[in-house]
Design a protein that fits this description.
Helices cover 97% and strands 0% of the residues. The protein has three helices and no strands. It is rod-shaped, with a radius of gyration of 67 Å.
Length: 176
């Protein structure tokens, strides 16, 4: 603007004739600027206010989204922190369950061994009883066979007749 004024004053020195077209242009420019200001002041002000309000809304929405993202991040970080604890708890639970299962299997094995031993003991006792009974029967048979052989070898025909007579007399006495 300083250049314009110095140019204008320089032209004043040259003469007023040359100054009139420049002065008319200057007045036209000022009228145009005033008219533009008067006509565009309200629409431009509203447009700037709307743009400012849009920017403010965008900033508020961006701030809200940032808060939501921070909250989500904190939630995820909390989950991750709890995840380590949960993994450790699951690992401890699995170890406890494995120890309990091992103990249960040991008890079941001990019970099974006890049952097998008891069954074996019963079978041994049963086999021993059967062997004793068989031995008694065999002993009795052998005793009877030996007694028969002894009696046959030592009994004489007169003793045999005498025993038969005694037996008959006993039978006769029983029938009466």
């Amino acid at each position: 603007m300083f250049f314009f004024l110095s140019h204008t004053f320089g032209m004043l020195a040259a003469g007023w004739e040359d100054l009139l077209p420049t002065l008319a242009r200057l007045i036209n420019l000022l009228v145009f600027i005033g008219l533009m200001y008067f006509l565009l002041r309200r629409p431009l002000g509203e447009a700037f206010r709307a743009r400012q309000e849009g920017i403010r809304r965008d900033l508020l929405r961006a701030e809200e989204e940032r808060r939501a993202a921070v909250a989500k991040l904190e939630e995820v970080e909390g989950r991750l922190a709890r995840l380590d604890a949960e993994v450790e708890a699951i690992r401890a639970q699995a170890q406890r369950e494995a120890a309990e299962e091992r103990e249960r299997i040991e008890r079941a094995t001990e019970e099974e061994v006890r049952k097998i031993r008891e069954q074996a003991r019963r079978e041994i006792e049963s086999a021993a009883k059967a062997a004793r009974a068989e031995l008694r029967a065999y002993t009795a048979e052998q005793s009877v066979r030996l007694a028969e052989e002894l009696i046959r070898s030592e009994i004489r025909p007169e003793d045999d007749a005498h025993l038969v007579n005694e037996y008959v007399e006993e039978l006769g006495g029983v029938g009466r």
